Amino acid sequence: IDLFGSDEEEDEEAAKVREERLRQYAEKKAKKPGIVAKSSILLDVKPWDDETDMGQLEERVRSIRMDGLLWGASKLVPVGYGIRKLQIQCVVEDEKVGTDILEEEITKFEDYVSS
């Protein structure tokens, strides 16, 4: 004699409801964008000598365009013997842009950049 009734139908029904809720949760989570990791980088760009046009150097550096790269403020910092280096700030998305790529792109301007 089954005094409390059959639980099999409720278990199957509860499992279906649970699976449906899990599926809806997974869909909702898939639509939500993930966290984008960003880094703020301060670059020091050293010219060849004291006769290098620093305005042109800055224009060349800022001409580098990549998805996930945003140039910020810059300033000229004295190094010594009349030579000034360009300090420039940028914000990058870690997944899209790395420091190696930036360094490689900046050093391509061989007429202006020493390191």
Essential attributes:
3-stranded antiparallel beta sheet; rod-shaped; Alpha-Beta Plaits; 37% helix; 3 strands; alpha+beta
Strand order of the largest sheet: 1-3-2
- Please, what is the average pLDDT? 85
- What gyration radius follows from the Cα positions, in whole Å? 29 Å
Order of helices and strands: HEHEEH
- Number of discrete helical segments: 3
Instruction: Tell me the major beta sheet.
Output: 3 strands, antiparallel
Structural class: alpha+beta
Give the % helix: 25-40%
Shape: rod-shaped
Family: Belongs to the EF-1-beta/EF-1-delta family.
Organism: Tyrannus savana
Domain Translation elongation factor EF1B beta/delta subunit guanine nucleotide exchange: 38-114
Protein name: EF1D factor
Describe the structure.
The chain is α+β, with helices and mostly antiparallel strands and 115 residues long. It has a domain at 34-108: 2-Layer Sandwich (Alpha-Beta Plaits), CATH 3.30.70.60. Helices cover 37% and strands 27% of the residues. The chain has 3 helices and 3 strands; from the N terminus they run H-E-H-E-E-H. The chain has helices at residues 8-31, 54-62, 99-107, and strands at 38-45, 69-80, 83-93. It has a 3-stranded antiparallel beta sheet, covered by helices on one side. The protein is rod-shaped, with a radius of gyration of 29 Å. The mean pLDDT is 85.
